[in-house]
Each structure stands twice: as C-alpha cells, then as structure tokens.
Design brief:
The chain is of the alpha/beta class. The chain has five helices and eleven strands, in the order E-E-E-H-E-H-E-H-E-E-E-E-H-E-H-E. The strands form two sheets. It has a six-stranded mixed sheet. Strands 6, 7, 8, 9 and 10 form a five-stranded mixed sheet that branches. The model has no long low-confidence stretch (mean pLDDT 84).
Length: 183
C-alpha cells in the first residue's frame, strides 16, 4: 500500500504554517515568519520539510490549502505553487477559507488583518450567519457580545486532523476569493 503524503499550507498571515501529513498523521509542523518573501522561500520551506522526512516534491499526492482572507501576495503565491505541484504530481487539491478552518459551533472567528483592523465572522451550527466583515479592532467587542471568540494567531495544530474533512476537493482551476480588493 502506498503512502498518502500530504501538505497543508496556510500562508495568509504573519506566519506561514506548513504541515506534512503521512496517512493523515502529522509528521512535521513548521512555522516561518512571512515577511513578504514567500515567492523566494515557499518551495524551499516545502522541500525542507519533505527532505527531513525522506520525501520529495514528487511524493506529494494531496495538498490542503487555507486560502484566505489574508496577505494577497502570499495567497497568490501559495495558490500558484499548490496548483503547479498538483498538476505535476496529479495530486488532489483541497481548499478551505480561514474562517471555516477556525470555526467552532456558535462562535465568532476573529482574524487579525494588518494594522488596526480584523476580519470577523459569526457561525451558528457550523455555518456562517453572514458575510465576513472587516472592522476596527476597537469595535470587535461590540460584535462579539458574550459569544466565544476564536483568535487566529495560533497554530491550531491540535484541530488540524479534525478539520481535514471540512476542506473541499476542487479542480486546479479554482479562484481565490478576496474580502478586500487586491493592491
């Protein structure tokens, strides 16, 4: 039986999170500071995590991508690298937006944007109530009230395996969705 070698990429925030899964077990988790240099480093990061575990880029047969909201350039770079690896390896591609990735039943998801703003979205019974909003950090408590908030800037490693079934299998031709217009 051949091994299922998967990558999980979330490069949309101040840190790039890269997981290597083998047969849906986390083999390695790396975090890299995302300082607008992802185009120079993403393949190197991926290759490094694979090499440490005795795999190569050609061994990847599934990629899971957290695709936004977040850093525009990082999102585009990750999508391009992901699509390319999937096409070259005939690998399956799964995507999820960051709100769904961090959601919990009946909760608010708060994702820090650059500057003094955050994206917020409310979930009831694991479904978005409305479109996500970009709000001033100073006004977040006006929205959250007594509901539970999930703050993004954690690695959320403990929930990854449980969230894999929430990713959606897509064609390589998917389109990124932006909450703000790209620069």
């Amino acid at each position: 039986m051949s091994k299922e070698v998967s990558l999980v990429l979330d490069v949309t925030s101040a840190h790039a999170y890269i997981f290597l899964l083998v047969n849906q077990e986390i083999k390695q988790f790396d975090t890299h500071e995302n300082k607008n240099n992802l185009s120079d480093n993403l393949i190197e990061y991926i290759d490094s995590i694979l090499h440490k575990n005795k795999y190569s880029l050609h061994d990847i047969n599934k990629i899971y991508l957290v695709y936004g909201p977040g850093k525009f350039s990082a999102m585009r770079i990750a999508a391009t690298v992901t699509k390319t690896l999937c096409l070259l390896n005939q690998a399956q591609l799964y995507i999820i937006d960051k709100f769904d990735y961090f959601s919990e039943p009946n909760s608010w998801v708060v994702i820090k944007s650059d500057g003094s703003k955050s994206f917020i979205c409310h979930y009831t019974n694991n479904k978005k109530d409305a479109k996500p909003k970009l709000v001033e950090d100073s006004t977040i408590n006006e929205y959250i009230n007594t509901d539970k908030a999930v703050i993004y800037e954690s690695n959320n490693k403990h929930q990854l395996i449980n969230k894999l079934q929430s990713f959606k299998l897509v064609d390589y031709d998917f389109t990124l969705e932006y909450l703000k217009k790209p620069c």
